Amino acid sequence: MNQATSLLSALFTTLLLATAAHATPAPGAPAPAFELLDQDGNTHQLADYRGKWLVLYFYPKDDTPGCTTQACEFRDNIFAYRRLGAEIVGISVDDVASHQAFAEKHSLPFPLLADDGGEVAREYGVLRNFGVMKLASRQTFLVSPDGMVARHYEKVDVDTHSAEVIADLEALAAAD
Which residue, among 16, 120, 1, has the nearest Cα to 58 in the 3D structure? Predict the structure, then answer.
């Protein structure tokens, strides 16, 4: 490895480490509380989902190819989630108007929460700050009915993720 490549690698590593301000909550830890507006201007809090499974997925940007695929996979499996007593909530740093257009365009039957300041993404350890732009990284947290993180999906394949979460929910239900 030459000196320039070494320097670029070190700089990139430093940037990645600097972007995550908080540690990601581990399975078994309480899910960080939140209070955000959805695409319709309604307020949602973590406490609203007490007693239900919550699929809390963070994604980078409304109406981009990967984010659209992921949201539509959740949409297409909504009845399986409801059968399992689970709710789905998406969060990105986009604003309410952007979420509204995205949800309407793709007929999304679940809330998209506007974390336009990035505070909630930061609390979950998924905020990436690139100086001129902040994004939430694509990660999902499965929150148990008692408000604890049951699963953390750090690496998400948008084509198969929804099915993976459903399988985990079924396994957790079978274990109860």
Answer: 120
- The C-alpha angle 144, 121, 70, rounded to 5 degrees, equals 70
> Domain containing 77 — which CATH number?
3.40.30.10
Q: Which residues are catalytic, by number?
A: 67
Length of the chain: 176
The neighbouring-strand residues paired with 87 are: 54
pLDDT band at residue 114, thresholds of 50, 70 and 90? very high
Q: Say how far apart CA 31 and CA 120 lie, in whole Å.
A: 11
- pLDDT, position 161: 97
d(CA 59, CA 114): 11
Which residue matches tokens 């274990």?
175
Residue span of the structural domain in which 43 resides:
3-175
State how many domains the chain has.
1
Pairing of strands 139-143, 53-58: antiparallel
